[in-house]
Design brief:
Layout: E1 5-11, H1 16-32, E2 36-42, H2 49-55, H3 62-74, H4 96-108, H5 113-126, H6 134-144, H7 148-156, H8 159-174, E3 181-184, E4 189-192, H9 197-209
Parallel strand pairs: 1-2
Antiparallel strand pairs: 1-3, 3-4
Helix pairs in contact: 4-5, 4-7, 4-8, 5-6
Length: 219
């Protein structure tokens, strides 16, 4: 029987480090194929962006300071594009609307989930659009080839809300520190923050080589 590994990936769609990490997740999918199952989950870092940035960065230049920080952070990444006015105009009040739509897509059209996530991140980070607005979210769905009606049905009945609540419940149980967090081996291995692809790759390869390595504890 062929071995496989489950990778649980927690992120906030508005987190620049998760935006950077997305290329690494795509590389995992390309290199390992069916050997790795990627479970996309969401945590709330920018659930209240005014508090996170406006209050949290008040003594460091507020939104302008945070925008400068992001531009400096991505300067060394060739494959990452960032709008020069990021967080200076059309600021999303919260990442929650996007997360709810993404959970709805996972239920309604999972084959197009990755394309939808990429479309949303591109809309915000590259085009500086407010992905908290339904019009922008609907445009991202159209770009990804997803039926907006099918997605909003999942929202209207509360199923997407329940799925996001499940992410939050498991986030607490798994002790997720923030965005992005990569979880392997049933929570025994956690990689948090700006983790390079080779580190993720090494952990996956070790689990594929010896899938029971972390199953027992000596203490």
């Amino acid at each position: 029987m062929s071995r496989s590994v489950s990778l649980t990936y927690y992120s906030d769609v508005l987190c620049v480090w998760a935006y950077i990490a997305q290329t690494r997740i795509e590389e995992v999918a390309e290199q390992f194929g069916s050997e790795v199952t990627i479970d996309y989950r969401f945590c709330s870092v920018f659930g209240d962006s005014a508090h996170k940035i406006g209050h949290g960065w008040a003594d460091r230049g507020g939104y302008d300071g945070f925008s400068s920080h992001l531009r400096e952070a991505v300067a060394s990444f060739d494959r990452v594009a960032l709008h020069p006015e990021i967080w200076q105009r059309d600021r999303p009040a919260s990442s929650t609307p996007a997360h709810l739509v993404l959970k709805a897509v996972q239920r309604a059209d999972p084959a197009h989930f990755e394309a939808t996530l990429k479309a949303m991140r591109s809309a915000f980070f590259e085009r500086c659009l407010d992905i908290g607005r339904r019009s922008v979210l609907d445009a991202a769905l159209t770009e990804a080839g997803v039926s907006a009606d099918a997605v909003w049905q999942q929202l209207d009945c509360g199923a997407a809300h329940a799925a996001l609540e499940a992410d939050r419940r498991d986030e607490s149980a798994l002790r997720v520190q923030g965005s992005p967090t990569f979880i392997l081996d049933g929570g025994r291995q956690k990689l948090y923050g700006n983790v390079g692809y080779r580190v993720i790759e090494a952990n996956i390869k070790e689990l594929l080589r010896s899938p029971n390595a972390g199953a027992a504890s000596w203490c």
